[in-house]
Amino acid sequence: MPEPADRRYGPAPLPQPRGPLSAAVTDALRRAPHDLPASLGADLDPEDPLTDEDLQLTLFLCYELHYRGWRGVDDDWEWQPTLLGLRARAERPFEAALRRLVGSPRVPAAGVAAGLAELVASDDGPSLAATLQRRADLAQFREFVVHRSVYHLREADPHSWALPRLGGEAKAALVEIQTDEYGNGRLDRMHSELFRRTLDRLDLDTGYGAHVDAVPAVTLATNNLMSLFGLHRRLRGAVLGHLAAFEMTSSLPNRRYGNGLRRLGFDEVATGFYDEHVEADAVHEQIAAHDMCGGLVRAEPALGPDVLFGAAAGLAVDRLFAAHLLDSWAAGRSSLRPTVPSTPPTLPPTVPLVAATPMAPPAPTALV
Known about the structure:
mainly alpha
């Protein structure tokens, strides 16, 4: 099938399988659409669905068909019934694990916006942002950017699935947030494009989906939960709660990420993505909590617990992600899978490299 001339925007190259299930899916996707065996995935019972490489890649393979697709894969796979059935079988243990992880948050008497604020205030994850600001070396910062590229090169897309499922105040608020994310109609201001410049400055591949093979299951899980929420109408409250938590916890970390790059000698082109989010997300925080999520629950009160579930799940999986990076670095090993070299890039003459402070093991209970 014809491929786009500019591959920066997709489709993504098919990743390497990580187990029997993802191997079966990638093998199938390379051929014309056909029925998969009904038994495929029927016995799924991973010990930890959130860190199971085979399960998370299988979900990512299925979900990406609804985004930019896979290079060389027939578009008709998107709605192939037996593949959708397999996706549903893979989603069940994933969603169950998310619900076990966070329980069933209750909406306080003060309302859903107050509940979101409580979740954010009680989030006690390890401070990845503080480490990147103060101690991470260039190789570690590049690893972090590789992890985040899976989402940031399609930034805002998973949450946009909610738009046709909303009306009224919640929809207007989501449109306001997403309009900023998509650069107010300017390609050069789209957040995904700002992040592409950061990748380029760090001498990393800027192609869409270029780093999927390098990232572990926990990174895929941070992306898959957004797709799970966004692609199911029944979880429209959860996808808005996830976005709200994302916006409410973004401003300070992004300031720290930008400062970390400046410490390493990078210029405003490299830090532009993070600097943009410092101000934008401070504004989005109020819109997301009060107008978007509050508006949804005012229209559909029964969705309040779903909003808080989505927020809690996003925060919890991000804690697992941060712990993976910090634990890997404290042990002196890469946080990536062994497919991408972590050697520092050759920087352009206009971007001087400043030696980083040696990495020290992080305090496990430090706050962002």
